[in-house]
UniProtKB/TrEMBL annotation:
SUPFAM superfamilies assigned to the protein according to its UniProt record, in alphabetical order: Acyl-CoA N-acyltransferases (Nat) (SSF55729)
PROSITE patterns the UniProt entry points to: GNAT, GNAT_YJDJ
Protein name (record): Uncharacterized protein
MF (Gene Ontology): acyltransferase activity, transferring groups other than amino-acyl groups
Organism annotation: Thermobifida cellulosilytica TB100
CDD domains according to UniProt: NAT_SF
InterPro entries per UniProt: Acyl_CoA_acyltransferase, Gcn5-rel_NAT, GNAT_dom, GNAT_YJDJ
Pfam families in UniProt: Acetyltransf_CG
Domain N-acetyltransferase, residue spans: 1-97, 6-94
PANTHER family: BSR4717 PROTEIN, PROTEIN NATD1
Amino acid sequence: MDARVTDAPERQRYEIRVDGEEVAGFVDYRTTTDGLLVLTHTEVDPSYKGRGVGGRLVQGVLEDVRARGGRVLAVCPFARKWIERHPDYADLVHRVEESRVTD
C-alpha cells in the first residue's frame, strides 16, 4: 500500500492519501502561539479501517513535525495511544510540568 501524508494548513489538518486516491484519513490540529502543534482529532474513512492507515497517518505527522523541529501535544486519544506505543517519538511530545504553589 502506497500512502502519502501531507500537511493541509489551510484546513488545519494533515491528510493521508492511499494509492493516489482521495483522502483516506486526516488529523486535525491547532497551532499555539509558540508553535506547538496540538493534535485534536484523527479520522480514517471506514473503508480503510483495520489496514494501518491511522498509524501511518500519525507517524507521517510526527515525521513532519520532527523535520520541522517542532513539538506536539496529542489530545486526540488515537494519536496519544499511538505515540505511547512508539516511544521513539516521545522526544516530540510536549509535557506539561506540574505546577507547585508555594506560600
